[in-house]
Specification:
Length: about 90
């Protein structure tokens, strides 16, 4: 979400570490059940900033050559749902 402050714009993101997951399906389910309802309440008509928290297993899965279908699914989910992942935490 973007807010205007005198002289600058401020971006806020909801961090998904509030509903951690061990695999991509669990991560997307958390976004579906918790983040999307928040977006509906807080970012009506606009994109919603999200800071994905990814454990090493998911980060490695998404960046592996054979993980490209999962990466496509990950990217498409954000695009289709008006989520703006402008910051990441991966461990």
């Amino acid at each position: 979400m973007r807010f205007e402050h005198p002289g600058r714009a401020v971006r806020l993101a909801y961090c998904s570490n509030l509903h951690p997951a061990e695999d991509l399906d669990g991560f997307l389910e958390g976004l579906r059940t918790i983040t999307l309802p928040l977006r509906e309440r807080l970012a009506v008509g606009g994109s919603f900033g999200v800071g994905p928290w990814l454990p090493a297993a998911i980060a490695m899965e998404l960046t592996a050559d054979e993980g490209s279908p999962d990466l496509s699914r990950f990217v498409e989910f954000f695009a289709e749902n008006g989520l703006d992942p402008f910051t990441f935490n991966a461990f």
